[in-house]
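Hi,

Apologies if this is the wrong queue. I'm a grad student, and the batch job for Sigma54 specific transcriptional regulator, Fis family from Stigmatella erecta produced an output file that my downstream script rejects. I'm not sure whether the problem is my script or the file. Here is the sequence I used:
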Amino acid sequence: MNDASSLPLRGRILVVDDQRNMRATTALLLRAAGHTVSEAATGEEALGLLAGGGVDLLLTDLKMEPMDGLTLLKRALEVAPRLQVILMTAFGSIESAVEAMRLGAYDYVTKPFKESEVRYRVERALERAGLLSAVNMFSGEFNQRHGLSALVGSSPAMLELKTRLVRVAQSDATVLIQGESGTGKELVARALHAQSRRSTKPFVPVNCAAISETLLESELFGHAKGAFTGAVKTRRGLFEEADGGTLFIDEVTETSPAFQSKLLRTLQEGEVRRVGESTSLRVDVRTAAATNRDIELEVQEKRFRQDLYYRLNVVTLRVPPLRERLEDVPALAKHFLERSNARSPRPRQLSASAVAHLMGYAFPGNVRELENLIEQAAALAEGDELQAEDFPIRPQTKAAAPAGNGHVSLVESPGARIPTLAEMVDEAERRAIAQSLERNGTDLARVAEELGISSTTLWRKMKRLNLRPPGDVGRE
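Support response: The file is valid. Your script probably expects a header line. Output copied below for reference.
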């Protein structure tokens, strides 16, 4: 039986092309696929239709008169910021494609194109439009009330995180939040709590790495008067403080096996026993745990209990590092600068050169590093507009290298020069192929289908970029 989620998405599409035959043929193809299609012969006509709303995807020719496709792209996104745009061109070049993506296009396709290619790219664009719609249900006051506004970014990685978070929030399932240091794992936990039915109850965070092992048990479970030296009175633990709400246990992999055993019992039984007492207390707590380590490796190395891992890992939320969502840097930088301006008598602005400079950096410290850079620049800059030179960072290039498990990973290497356009395009292709290989392994036909290219093109690109499927190390 077919699942409804597996059915092709149907969307409202506007096709713009000054060549009537091409426009009509493309529209006919999309209508045959079940989409609702409008047509426009000029950019101005298209903008008039977009102003009325109700369009999910704009499919426009690049070379048109008097308004070309890039100009239409910029003006269309001003009218409808969440609109998905695919550019069609018979005069395609890497430069025009990169410029289109930089200006906000979702994709581009080169004429003459195959019907299957257009349908594939359109379906992908509509999937992203659907994700945006799901997340934007929580905008405005609702978003403020439910905490999603704290998760800044609309990149595919962030949209996936937000959508998954929305789905799991209403359950009481234990959530494991994984991500590098500085990615915002606690913000994700707070958003999870704010959207849950427990949002009116306490959210209690604890960082296991910040508390000594001898005090951690008392901190979480509480203690009786006289249980140890300095216990001058009975104290409730954080599990009790969080009763009815959410307890966020950060850096859970920093704990000892002995503590992990006690934590496991509490999660299984739903009750805590204070240090120095023999009776247990019932607690109703939703638990979210976080770590910046490879927790599966910790289990394999016997540093983390496998049974506790399974108890915590009911649902996983992965917070992407900033280098995987550099398209969110402008929004994040603006967000942090607005917060800084609210505390400063001298408001600052970000120049285009500063934003471009920040987007060329790989951010090993992730979002926290970006926030610190903005704070520092706002405090020390001489002018009211922050320039590239106000940020003491060097652009970095990335090189693909096989990780120890045979999978392709991206390795950061600092460099003094700004990468060329061709290098940036190669890196974008390398990243897209590497991520698809991670998902699909040795099924190259599936990888090619997912990327919207032929198997021959995929093989040629992999050879040029020195990429191999997982598990294919050493094979020529």
